[in-house]
Write a structure and sequence with these properties.
284 residues, alpha/beta, Rossmann fold, seven-stranded parallel beta sheet, 9 strands, 46% helix, globular
Length: 284
């Protein structure tokens, strides 16, 4: 990390709204530097105007490698290093697996999975050179437990979970930390303008996947999670000498994961004879 007493430099994707914007503001209040990025730079320009010495506002579409390369170059020219990379950019498409078209699916994977990979791979050589750094990958409770109507979005987050878990082990000996952030429902724009609904509707999924559409329409602005407390928790993770690999955020996320684990343990026990019976007999 940065030298003792020196401000850290945070690079945050998707800084225009939601967690990304709030995190940038809280980091700045704490005295650190921020590279605030968004596809439309005018959405983060005010941060640079307010904190001209500690903010670098940059345009960044995580699906465009040349913009990522340019952003890292400008970051290093300005601040000399990066201490925290926050892969926050992403969005969700609602609809049954059969309903979501390739045209609706591919841009989401390009942003949520391949965009995160592009940014991370671009920054890893700098982190390896420094022998320090902390990566926060924004996943979701939907990255560890899935439900009808959200499957293809949750598939992007399951991918982030697997990639992140492996990467954390690869970079730990190099002094680099990684934490997967798993929020439940928080009062951000995720259910509002940050989300997309599949255009196709199949009547047979009215009792399952359509619940996700109803939830999106009914619960926007009513989610129990406080975004400010969430970003403060992220800062706490970066401050910690022993940060977790995963951080659940919100009581709803904790409840959902515990329900899944309980059901999974029951199923594992019920099918254990079949599971272990799939091996060759011992000694063969």
């Amino acid at each position: 990390m940065a030298e003792t007493g020196s401000p850290r430099t945070w690079f945050i994707t998707g800084s225009s709204t939601g967690f990304g914007r709030l995190l940038a503001e809280e980091v700045l209040k704490a005295g650190d530097n921020v590279v605030a990025t968004a596809r439309k730079i005018e959405q983060v320009a005010d941060l640079e105007e307010k904190y001209p010495e500690r903010v670098l506002a940059l345009p960044l579409d995580v699906t465009k490698q040349e913009q990522i390369d340019a952003a890292l170059e400008k970051t290093l020219a300005r601040f000399g290093r990066v201490d925290v990379l926050v892969n926050n950019a992403g969005y969700g498409v609602t609809g049954a697996v059969e309903e979501v078209s390739d045209e609706e699916l591919r841009p989401m994977y390009e942003t949520n999975v391949f965009g995160l990979l592009r940014v991370t791979r671009t920054f890893l050589p700098q982190f390896r050179k420094q022998r320090s750094g902390h990566i926060l990958n924004l996943s979701s409770i939907g990255g560890v437990t899935a439900g009808p109507g959200w499957g293809l979005y949750q598939g992007t987050k399951f991918a982030v979970e697997g990639i992140s878990e492996a990467l954390a082990q690869e970079v730990a000996p190099l002094g680099i930390r990684l934490t997967i952030i798993e929020p439940g429902p928080f009062r951000t724009d995720f259910l509002g303008r940050s989300g997309v609904e599949a255009a196709r509707r199949i009547e047979d999924y009215g009792a399952t996947a359509d619940n996700a559409r109803r939830y999106r329409n009914d619960q926007h602005g009513k989610q129990p999670g406080d975004p400010l407390k969430a970003v403060q928790a992220m800062i706490q993770v970066v401050d910690s000498p022993n940060p977790p690999l995963r951080l659940l955020l919100g009581a709803a996320a904790l409840k959902r994961l515990r329900q899944k684990l309980d059901a999974w343990q029951k199923e594992i026990a019920e099918w254990e004879p079949v599971t272990v019976g799939a091996d060759f007999p011992e000694g063969e």
